[in-house]
Structures are given as C-alpha cells and as structure tokens.
C-alpha cells in the first residue's frame, strides 16, 4: 500500500502532518493511491481515511488510538473560511449495554481524547472534495478545565444511559459532549436497556464533541475568532 509506515515518535508524526499543510486532498490522494469521490455525502469517512493513510496510522478497525505505538488519536476537523469548525466531531461509539458499568478513567472517551492530532480541512461544501486543502496540525491534550468538562458530561450522559434513560437523551444535553445517533441507516440496531432493565433494540449512539468546544481548542492555539 502506498504511503508511510507508522511514525516512530510524536516529532516524526508532526513532521509528516506539517508537510501536508496547504496540500489539496487530490494531491494527497494521488500520492497514496486513493480515488477521490465526487462528493462526501456518501463518503463521510473519506477525508479521515485519506489522512490516516498519508500519515501512517496503523490501528485500522481495532479498538485503539489511530497511532497505536504513540497512543495518539487522529481527528480531521472541517472548518469554514475563518478556521472555525462547521460540525461536531465524532469521538467513539457507545456500548449501550455496558456503559453503566464503565468508570470515566477506563472510558473510550477518556482514552481517545488523551492525546489528539487535529488536522483542519476546508469544510465549505461548495469546494469539490479534491480541491479542499489541509490546514496546520495541532497536537493536543486536554487541560484540567477541559478534562473536567468532558468528565462531567460523560458521567451525566453515561449514567442516564445506564439507568435506562437512553430514549430521553437528545443532542441538547451536555455542554461539551453530546450523544447522537451513529449509524449508516435506521435499520441498524444495538442492544440497550430501558428504565425497567429490560433489553431493548435501539439505534447505535455515539459521543460527539460540540463544535464550540473544538473551536475553543483551535482558537487557543491559532488566531481564530470566537463565535
């Protein structure tokens, strides 16, 4: 497969990511041998998969951070012309039947967000996928305030799911973290529990970071105006 092998260090990963800054996606795609889709409506994961291959991510579909040896998660983040995120960011799928027994420190949200390589990418839908450009990377770990906000929302939302309140959760709950459906179509189901403890079939859910939270991360490191 064209592309890099896994990076040996954070410094090497950052060098690779810095080298992609300013590149059009079609150029990167040609370099690693990936076709460019005409649009992203049916190819929502294409940008992330492209950057993973270009940087040498080695986790594949395994339940580990994208760069296993470095314990670093990769997140591409679509931004507008002023560098502000245009959508929420998927973190991980929620194990509906087990989430009530998981502690924050062992949670996938905590583990995946411990160290993140953010790669901004032009998110204007009027720009063809191949013409969109990658931005300056940012290697980030949550500070104490961010970590506490994430923990608070995770415990509130996970506790509600664990108590059988899945169907009461909407995208309005959570200050920085929210729960949203995560499935390609409505026929996909996962097992959960209702308020009486009975097993139910429910659409898969995922944890997402709100755009205002990711904007605050980018704004602290780059000259990006707050909304």
Summarize the entry for a quick read.
The chain has 227 residues and is α+β, with helices and mostly antiparallel strands. It is 28% helix and 18% strand. The protein has one domain (10-221): DNA mismatch repair MutH/Restriction endonuclease, type II (ECO RV Endonuclease, Chain A).
What characteristic shape results from the CA principal axes?
Answer: globular
CATH class: Alpha Beta
The helix-and-strand class reads alpha+beta
Question: Main β-sheet: number of strands, strand sense, barrel status?
Answer: 3 strands, mixed
CATH topology: ECO RV Endonuclease, Chain A
Cα-based radius of gyration, to the nearest Å: 18 Å
State the helical fraction.
25-40%
Which blocks of ≥5 consecutive residues have pLDDT under 50?
185-200
The N- and C-terminal alpha carbons lie at a distance of 42 Å
Order of strands in the sheet with most strands: 1-3-4
Mean pLDDT: 87
The helix tally amounts to: 6
Query: What is the total number of structural domains?
Result: 1
CATH architecture term: 3-Layer(aba) Sandwich
Number of strands: 8
CATH superfamily: DNA mismatch repair MutH/Restriction endonuclease, type II
SSE order, as H and E?
HHHEEHEEHEEEEH
Strand content: 15-25%
SSE layout and pairings?
Elements (H helix, E strand, L loop, with lengths): L9 H11 L4 H8 L13 H10 L17 E7 L9 E5 L14 H5 L3 E7 L15 E3 L3 H19 L14 E5 L8 E4 L5 E4 L2 E5 L1 H11 L6
Parallel strand pairs: 1-3
Antiparallel strand pairs: 2-8, 3-4, 5-8, 6-7
Helix pairs in contact: 2-3
